């Protein structure tokens, strides 16, 4: 039976090559899009899944008092204190934030910068059990001069081969001995790492909260319960008797695999993805697939007019409904499999485009979790087969043989309704896509043109690598200023676009000042950045006291009520000398944070980046001049960036989303048009005779076009009515995630509606015109 | 009223050419009831279609009163048709999705008759055709005879000068067939010109004149005396 079904199915598909191709290709496009997004989503969700201990490994984050932000950093003392009281904690590992800085690593032959050398506990590899290629894990981080390299770092420095025992000189002064090389895991990690050394601080008591603590707990322990227990244990720690302020703290645990997408703490050094974008993409690619399935269904049913008689004959000859369903499903399965194969080809071909767009390095056939992918795709194929072929199979199998043989089929009101609904659904999706695309584009343009509060063009940024350079900066500054094209020179630690900042909490005259972002700068910083004082003045060399002054932004004025404090003392005994406009630091999602600017001094962080405002002409020459000068000051390879380019990183994901949506929208619209085309051709076929009768009774071509278009336009109007509120809610929701957002106007909706109507008119008219213009006698003869 | 001269119509398919009409000459006077008879494939339906401007002949002349119809373009043909002609088909050709009332109303809509006027005309003809209680029904809820009455009503509602009937009783039993023929006769008596294609000599006996067609030629013409006398 199956063999026969298979044979007939193949013959039938071959006979209707055109439809079959449309069917398969439409589905293949939908599948390809879905598979690609699936790969991307899998990648985003695969962070740290290489770790076999991941299920038991958590990162600690703390909210020091209710209402404050949650921070993922903690004091070094915390983990050992907790482990001593809680037997559930098997092990802990910490890294120290001040160990994370760019280092110049030299083997004598090779000299390279590394950004991600982490200072960790020697227990680190118990929590993150990398596979060591060379060296012994247990002995790898016992002393301060040992360094464990990633296989990539090792290859860059030493080439292939075993480097264990060899020496490395870091920042020209410190010598390390390579103690091990581990294989880079096959899934991405929330912390990038090139190498590991022992952390430089064993903890300075409870006051230094700049450690990141990971706990490994025993298997099978409920996270929520343990979290509760952890907090109870914390409150019983002896230290709380001495340091009462710790009492309000609340400790949270984030599973290590969830840090990338779902961590809630701010000031996070970890890489952080955007779960909303992942969800949006998966959702929309699934929708794309669904409308491809709908198309498949509609095309199959449209074709079924021709098949009805065959079905009728089969029924008369004794075929049961089951045989027929299994027969039609066979046809669908053959087409689905063909579509899947084409989808693989399409996905492979367009993968570089996606990789380029999303800045990823995904491949179809070289994947960390192949079994997972195969299972996912199989499930999807099953769903697709049922979705795409199910309705058509039941529809065809349910024809009543007598009616079919009499030629009276396809007129069943129910099926027409179903097909109209399906087309409407397709258009709802397409319209939502169009509106979303327009709004995303508006928002991206809004972001790009948003007043960021500083002038970002023609500002060079590079790192100061020697402490001396900072100490003598006034002199170096003069040397830089003497260069042609250099307009202003200053220093800063957290220039706009840097997400991790220093945030302090102080008390001032009994009032608590919490969550103030502190930026350390040098004189002329505001001149380089083009941020004039709104009130008072900015730092100036003329005033000696400016080294203990503070400039605040408008948000700080608002939050702490500093309106009347201009010229007065404030926290840390600093005099507020001026107020500058808010600027955008981390991105468009977060409103400007209350920020204070101070000149580098003994009690401040280091302002370790040089920023230079340069003229807008002869850039290459200017850069060359700066490079020559700076290389004479610091004998390291010169690396610099442009502020506007590095700042663009804060919204690059939305530019990507915009581009991706572009593709989505066109594909969806194309598939929806295909569906419409099929339904229109089906309808025209079905109504040929009616059209003939109407022409006999005096209808003109235009009357017929009007009549056919009217029924479709009604569908499109209904689709618009459903899509518009849906799109409004979705985009409003999406926009609410931005502190800086565009206003939703009526235009995206009008444009989407107009496009959908025009597309419909054209598609339907193209199909209808032939029949409408034909001689009525031909239409009347049509059976 | 109708003067047809040297009408020729050829059907071409990929392999063969079939001459359906081969130099037909035919005159129909106003108020006449003409039957066209002949074996299958003799071209009688083609002739009727050409007369109804549903199909175009290759050559010849077709004058309606004094207007040459074969030189008209599509739109003019359509306009002429809807003002002057009514059609009755063997298989009724009612539109399934429309009610009896709406089916009958349709030609009036295409003739741009105002709504109130339309309602009046349709109700009038529904009354005449004795299908008042069926006006809200859909075609498939009616018997064949009733359906053909609706089709006749639809053909007549515009008060056409010429009614073309293509085997109007072909799908009906004899009782219902007779009803329809009587209807056509009544219509003819009120002055409407009728041209009917039929297989049935019984039906043809209702007409004034019978024209026999074979292989695209008129082979004979017969005045139906009984009927003519009746007329006088």
From TrEMBL, chain A:
Coiled coil: none annotated. One of its GO terms (cellular component) is plasma membrane. The keyword Transmembrane applies. The chain crosses the membrane at residues 21-41, 277-299, 324-353, 373-399, 420-440, 663-684, 712-731, 743-766. It is found in: Cell membrane. Residues 384-403 form the Rhodanese domain. InterPro entries: ABC3_permease_C (IPR003838), MacB_PCD (IPR025857), Macrolide_Exporter_MacB (IPR050250), Rhodanese-like_dom (IPR001763). Keywords: Cell membrane, Membrane, Transmembrane, Transmembrane helix. PANTHER family: ABC-TYPE MACROLIDE FAMILY EXPORT SYSTEM PERMEASE COMPONENT 2 (PTHR30572:SF18), MEMBRANE COMPONENT OF TRANSPORTER-RELATED (PTHR30572). This is Putative ABC transport system permease protein.
TrEMBL record, chain B:
PROSITE patterns: ABC_TRANSPORTER_1, ABC_TRANSPORTER_2. The keyword Nucleus does not apply. One of its GO terms (cellular component) is membrane protein complex. It comes from the Bacteria. Residues 2-231 form the ABC transporter domain. Transmembrane segments: none annotated. Keywords: ATP-binding, Nucleotide-binding, Translocase, Transport. InterPro entries: AAA+_ATPase, ABC_transporter-like_ATP-bd, ABC_transporter-like_CS, MacB-like_ATP-bd, P-loop_NTPase. Pfam families: ABC_tran. One of its GO terms (molecular function) is ATP binding. Belongs to the ABC transporter superfamily. Macrolide exporter (TC 3.A.1.122) family. This is Putative ABC transport system ATP-binding protein.
């Amino acid at each position: 039976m199956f063999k026969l079904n298979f044979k007939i199915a193949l013959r039938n598909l071959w006979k209707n090559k055109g439809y079959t191709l449309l069917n398969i290709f439409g589905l293949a496009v939908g599948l390809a899009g879905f598979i690609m997004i699936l790969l991307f989503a899998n990648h985003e969700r695969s962070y740290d899944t290489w770790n076999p201990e991941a299920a038991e490994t958590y990162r600690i984050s703390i909210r020091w008092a209710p209402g404050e932000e949650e921070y993922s950093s903690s004091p070094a003392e915390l983990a050992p204190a907790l482990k001593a009281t809680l037997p559930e904690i098997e092990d802990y590992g910490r890294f120290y934030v001040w160990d994370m800085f760019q280092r110049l690593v030299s083997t004598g032959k090779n000299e390279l910068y590394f950004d991600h050398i982490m200072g960790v506990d020697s227990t680190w590899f118990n929590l993150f059990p990398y596979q060591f290629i060379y060296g012994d894990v247990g002995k790898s981080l016992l002393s301060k001069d040992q360094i464990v390299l990633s296989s990539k770092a090792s290859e860059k420095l030493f080439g292939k081969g075993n480097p264990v025992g060899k020496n490395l000189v870091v920042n020209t002064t410190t010598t390390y001995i390579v103690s091990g090389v581990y294989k880079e895991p096959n899934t991405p990690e929330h912390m990038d790492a090139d190498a590991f050394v022992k952390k430089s601080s064993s903890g300075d008591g409870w006051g230094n909260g700049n450690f990141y603590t990971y706990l490994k707990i025993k298997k099978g322990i409920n996270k929520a319960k343990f979290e509760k227990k952890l907090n109870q244990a914390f409150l019983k720690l002896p230290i709380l008797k001495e340091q009462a302020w710790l009492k309000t703290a609340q400790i949270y645990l984030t599973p290590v695999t969830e840090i990338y997408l779902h961590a809630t703490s701010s000031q996070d050094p970890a890489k952080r993805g955007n779960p909303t974008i992942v969800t949006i993409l998966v959702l929309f690619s699934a929708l794309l697939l669904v409308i491809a399935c709908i198309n498949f269904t509609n095309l199959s049913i449209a074709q079924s007019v021709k098949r009805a008689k065959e079905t009728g004959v089969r029924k008369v000859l004794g075929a049961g409904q089951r045989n027929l369903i299994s027969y039609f499903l066979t046809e669908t399965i053959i087409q689905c499999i063909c579509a899947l194969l084409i989808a693989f080809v399409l996905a492979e071909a367009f993968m570089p485009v996606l990789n380029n767009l999303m800045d990823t390095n995904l491949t179809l056939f070289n994947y960390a979790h192949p079994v997972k992918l195969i299972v996912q795709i199989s499930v999807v194929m099953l769903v697709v087969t049922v979705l795409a072929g199910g309705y058509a199979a039941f529809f065809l199998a349910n024809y009543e043989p007598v009616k079919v043989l009499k030629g009276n089929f396809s007129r069943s009101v129910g099926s027409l309704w179903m097909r109209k609904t399906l087309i409407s659904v397709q258009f709802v999706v397409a319209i939502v896509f169009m509106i979303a695309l327009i709004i995303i584009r508006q928002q991206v343009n809004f972001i790009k043109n948003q007043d960021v509060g500083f002038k970002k063009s023609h500002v060079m940024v590079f790192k100061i690598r020697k402490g001396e350079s900072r100490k003598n900066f006034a002199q170096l500054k003069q040397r830089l200023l003497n260069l042609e094209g250099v307009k202003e020179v200053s220093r800063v630690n957290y220039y706009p676009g840097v997400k991790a900042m220093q945030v302090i909490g102080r008390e001032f005259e009994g009032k608590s000042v919490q969550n103030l972002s502190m930026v350390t700068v040098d004189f002329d910083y505001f001149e380089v950045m083009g941020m004039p004082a709104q009130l008072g003045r900015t730092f100036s060399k003329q005033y000696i006291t400016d080294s203990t002054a503070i400039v605040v932004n408008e948000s700080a004025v608002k939050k702490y009520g500093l309106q009347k404090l201009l010229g007065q003392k404030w926290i840390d005994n600093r005099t507020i000398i001026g107020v500058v406009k808010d600027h955008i630091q981390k991105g468009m999602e977060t409103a400007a944070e209350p920020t204070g600017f101070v000149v580098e001094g003994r009690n401040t962080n280091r302002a370790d980046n040089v920023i230079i405002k340069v003229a807008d002409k002869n850039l290459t020459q200017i850069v060359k001049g700066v490079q020559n000068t700076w290389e004479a000051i610091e004998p390291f390879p010169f690396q610099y960036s442009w502020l506007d380019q590095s700042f663009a990183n804060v919204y690059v994901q939305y530019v990507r989303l915009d581009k991706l949506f572009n593709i989505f929208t066109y594909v969806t619209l194309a598939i929806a048009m295909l569906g419409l085309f099929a339904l229109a051709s089906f309808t025209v076929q079905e109504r040929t005779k009616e059209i003939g009768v109407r022409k006999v009774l005096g209808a003109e071509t235009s009357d017929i076009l009007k009549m056919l278009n009217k029924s479709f336009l009604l569908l499109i109007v209904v689709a618009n009515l459903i899509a518009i509120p849906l799109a409004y809610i979705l985009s409003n929701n999406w926009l609410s995630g931005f502190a800086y957002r565009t206003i939703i106007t009526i235009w995206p909706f009008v444009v989407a509606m107009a496009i959908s109507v025009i597309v419909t008119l054209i598609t339907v008219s193209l199909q209808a015109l032939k029949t409408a213009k034909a001689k009525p006698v031909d239409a009347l003869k049509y059976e | 009223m109708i003067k047809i001269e040297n009408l020729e119509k050829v059907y071409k398919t990929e392999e063969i050419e079939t001459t359906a009409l081969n130099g037909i000459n035919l005159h129909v006077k106003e108020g006449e009831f003409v039957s066209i008879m002949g074996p299958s494939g003799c071209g009688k339906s083609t002739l009727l279609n050409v007369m109804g401007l549903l199909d175009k002949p290759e050559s010849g002349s077709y004058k309606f009163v004094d207007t040459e119809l074969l030189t008209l373009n599509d739109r003019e043909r359509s306009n002429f048709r809807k003002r002057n002609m009514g059609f009755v088909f063997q298989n009724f050709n009612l539109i399934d999705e429309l009610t009896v009332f709406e089916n009958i109303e349709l030609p009036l809509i295409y003739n741009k008759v105002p709504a109130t006027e339309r309602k009046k005309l349709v109700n009038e003809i529904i009354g005449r055709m004795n299908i008042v209680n069926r006006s809200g029904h859909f075609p498939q809820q009616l018997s064949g005879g009733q359906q053909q009455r609706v089709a006749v009503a639809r053909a007549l509602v515009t008060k056409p000068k010429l009614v073309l009937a293509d085997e109007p009783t072909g799908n009906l039993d004899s009782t219902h067939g007779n009803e329809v023929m009587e209807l056509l006769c009544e219509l003819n008596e009120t002055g409407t010109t009728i041209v009917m294609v039929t297989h049935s000599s019984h039906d043809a006996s209702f007409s004034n004149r019978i024209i026999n067609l074979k292989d695209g030629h008129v082979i004979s013409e017969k005045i139906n005396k009984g009927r003519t006398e009746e007329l006088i």
